[in-house]
């Protein structure tokens, strides 16, 4: 059995010609569907009856292009480049081949030939990016790297889930771990609430450029800030977005260790639900930090207590602006909500709308 690769256009021809051959479609209608003349339709129909669907495949497929450069020209060009222009780029080499030797070759064609022959490599390959280690911050809580990691944490015993990881930059301590069904703004808000309740407010969080942390397209309305970014602003916690994975290497390296050790610990404990996995995390974090955490250069703790006017539940909540009408109604998620006129907030809104 020979398999023939066919394009969507060719498959469409097979369908229409099969209808015509079976007497279910008129030739004029079929020609209109395929965009060909009646004479061309009958030629295609004759080939279809003689060769079957395979006859509709292009006869040029797999054959060299008629516009290809002759092999002799290719060999001549590469010989000249190898002997005289070995350190030339494809653009300059193509110019010299034409001006000094009368060999006309497109620069992109020559680029491909030189790359295949090992005579040229791209500038990106020449100049590999160097990522030097960034010095650690001096105090605990001065900068906390945060990231989510999708991995088969429960293997085949439980549902898929993601692990939210908070790693202190100064000490490499695991500050907080939490399994969630998937990365989301609400999941990060809940994890941040647990973190702040346990340690206080860090000076800054260091994340990637996920849409949870920053607006990656031009905002059509509002202040251009994400829900999570607004919550951190209300708590006076700075958010920094790393330009590359290497920039937040502490949490990236922690992922590798967690994907090895934590998966095995969960297996040994027989955890098969997200709740059971979260229950095991405090003991794992304590053992991990005892083994791998490093002392900070400065013993002071940079975490800050909540101010009397700050409320975690109010700050780490999803907020959206809506307009209240004079009738004390508002629309949200395709629903019309009617405010209780007897509530003090509703009464204040009613006075403002009068």
Structural summary, described in words:
The chain has 354 residues and is an alpha/beta fold. The chain is built from 13 helices and seven strands. It has helices at residues 8-21, 27-34, 38-51, 71-84, 90-101, 107-116, 123-126, 185-199, 227-234, 249-269, 274-292, 312-315, 344-353, and strands at residues 144-151, 161-168, 174-180, 204-207, 238-241, 329-332, 335-338. It has a five-stranded mixed sheet with strand order 3-2-1-4-5, sandwiched between helices. The protein has a two-stranded antiparallel ribbon with strand order 6-7. A hairpin with a 5-residue loop joins strand 2 (161-168) and strand 3 (174-180). It is extended and about 85 Å long.
Major sheet strand order:
3-2-1-4-5
Number of E-state strands: 7
What class do helices, strands and sheet pairing give? alpha/beta
Order of secondary-structure elements: HHHHHHHEEEHEHEHHHEEH
SS summary, helix count: 13
Low-confidence stretches: none
